[in-house]
């Protein structure tokens, strides 16, 4: 009988004594999300993360660490002016989150401006998001991903799908409205379930044809409308590996059982060895930022505790 390792992120609800600061932060965030005037004020004292065509700006420090530079609104206005652009463009920044000190955090895409010129002024480099995950510290990765997802949503939802008319965003960018139809659009999320199956000794990993060669990952799939996470998980396992582990070649190219030794070896690989075509030549698993990696790591730890 196959057992999912466990369902990740099932929250343990507790009332915390220190929840006061969390409550005030969430209320502050909600206010600047909903109220245009409050958001404009927050932008004046907030932090802005720059992107160029959705690639985040990173800065390498003297000690070789990569950081996500948090610019001030006046810094961005200065950059825009120096490059002959309208400094008012900074108002297009999208609210991402706020810090523990209640400073608002925004993302702003300067894709219309020459990349190299911005990089020089900011002493940084625009890096592909997946590469940025390898370079940044853990806490910055979710922020940069969220900033990019919101920018992408705005860049692809400029028109109402009912009337074809342009949609207008609110100041924070938490919604877009078509004034012709009255429809309000909110950033779209696509819930996904991910699971690591184990038969007690081995774990089951699959690969899609689009994965880099040799890389196997935990089974994952998008939830359907109206489905619970548990139902989605059950369906995805049935679809992808079937009762007798028959593999659906449309979604998965291959699925195999891997022993603890094989998994341990794969977890140590930072960059897989490659052949002369640049293709990896060994079995490897997604990098440490990936949820699949954390599931596999946890399974390996549990196997150790059992032995
Ligand atoms: N963080 C991690 O460690 C891992 C993340 N993933 C991610 O999980 C997600 C789901 O995994 P898959 O196996 O690709 O999903 P899946 O098993 O549901 O198959 C993908 C199919 O779902 C449909 N689809 C695409 N986008 C959709 C959406 N937004 N809503 C509903 N259906 C959609 C398409 O027909 C697509 O071919 C992917 O984004 C994948 O990159 C997958 C494995 C590991
Ligand atoms: Mg899948």
UniProtKB/TrEMBL annotation:
Under the heading PROSITE patterns, the entry gives: NUDIX (PS51462), NUDIX_BOX (PS00893)
Upper lineage: Eukaryota, Metazoa, Chordata, Craniata, Vertebrata
Q: The Nudix hydrolase domain covers which part of the protein?
A: 187-307
Taxonomically, which superkingdom? Eukaryota
Q: Which cofactor names does the annotation list?
A: Mg(2+)
The broad enzyme category this protein falls into is hydrolase
Protein's UniProt name: NAD(+) diphosphatase
Instruction: List UniProt keywords, sorted A-Z.
Output: Hydrolase, Magnesium, Metal-binding, NAD
Enzyme Commission code: 3.6.1.22
GO-annotated molecular function: hydrolase activity; metal ion binding
Its UniProt entry gives the catalysed reaction(s) as:
NADH + H2O = reduced beta-nicotinamide D-ribonucleotide + AMP + 2 H(+); NADPH + H2O = reduced beta-nicotinamide D-ribonucleotide + adenosine 2',5'-bisphosphate + 2 H(+); NAD(+) + H2O = beta-nicotinamide D-ribonucleotide + AMP + 2 H(+)
